[in-house]
Amino acid sequence: xxxxxxxxxxxxxxxxxxxxxxxxxxxxxxxxxxxxxxxxxxxxxxxxxxxxxxxxxxxxxxxxxxxxxxxxxxxxxxxxxxxxxxxxxxxxxxxxxxxxxxxxxxxxxxxxxxxxxxxxxxxxxxxxxxxxxxxxxxxxxxxxxxxxxxxxxxxxxxxxxxxxxxxxxxxxxxxxxxxxxxxxxxxxxxxxxxxxxxxxxxxxxxxxxxxxxxxxxxxxxxxxxxxxxxxxxxxxxxxxxxxxxxxxxxxxxxxxxxxxxxxxxxxxxxxxxxxxxxxxxxxxxxxxxxxxxxxxxxxxxxxxxxxxxxxxxxxxxxxxxxxxxxxxxxxxxxxxxxxxxxxxxxxxxxxxxxxxxxxxxxxxxxxxxxxxxxxxxxxxxxxxxxxxxxxxxxxxxxxxxxxxxxxxxxxxxxxxxxxxxxxxxxxxxxxxxxxxxxxxxxxxxxxxxxxxxxxxxxxxxxxxx
Length: 465
Prior knowledge:
465 residues; alpha/beta; five-stranded antiparallel β-sheet; globular; cell wall biogenesis/degradation; hydrolase; MurNAc-LAA_cat; N-acetylmuramoyl-L-alanine amidase; signal
């Protein structure tokens, strides 16, 4: 990590710790989770005293951003008065740390509330709402032909999204969409503000020119949270787009540690350090969303296990299919296959491995992820099951930023009475406040899905060695 970083993201994120009004400074050398590929943008914000650091030595890049946090960061960027004051919103009292910024931004028509006269300061903002705030706050490009498959001209945020995209503040996704309803993370919002203030950090919207080699030489999968795609094979070249974790790409040419790739309409050079091989052989993985129908599984804190794991499993299927792996679902809707019936579905669909997805429940203090395998039966099946569990669990606790409870042996019927290499993974505790806070968000459910998919890819690559 660069020694230039002096402190990180206190102003925007500290509210959850309850000490926003107390100055805290953290040495950059002690920060342990800042994404190194974004250090230039974040250092720029630090130098402008827009963001500072967490006193627990973390950046927490994957946590969501609330409306009051976003208003604070925008307010600091525009030099608004931070003095606490009355606002026009019934749920933002003058005692709120963000009241000055919210009042100023309201007066300048940058933010608005809801019809009932509230601001909903704790509500997480979306990419579409971000586009509105950024567009109204900064002098960005006004005209562009930029369009996205999921943002029609009648969309309420169409003009704002077009503006931030055409200005290079925010790029779309490889599938051609913008995902306006997707909740935004701390690192994402920091990038958008840095790009708005400094054009040097903005992304280029046009695709790079072909590298001259039209023949695909390899198929690989992205492992980085956000992988920049550049015009040439080094960080000295401009950015033409980005790819997210789990995206499968075609490789056309290699130059040192760089590869020229394509994914949909995104083409350019990426670092091979953030790519892994796409399994070459054909595979069928059975995904088993636990419980279902009359069996809800665990229920706590407003979540029902059967619904959470079905959502995660269906998303994991998309990632796996993108990586060229066929998926056999034991259920795709809210019904209950018997335990033995789940195994039979996997066998009938000729799956070669089995992953059952669950969410945990115990006491309030229990937290984290864990993955089980069964050591019963043939030793080769047990060993492959253990390896599959290790690959998935290693990805899962990192993607979810949760406690690693490890890989364990257990006798759950769907993995014990199963001739296939099989595991049962627990993606967090519905009874733990911190775990459930994440499992309620689309961001972390998608992270769990990516982790499961990438763990399966790791397993098949290991199997093919």
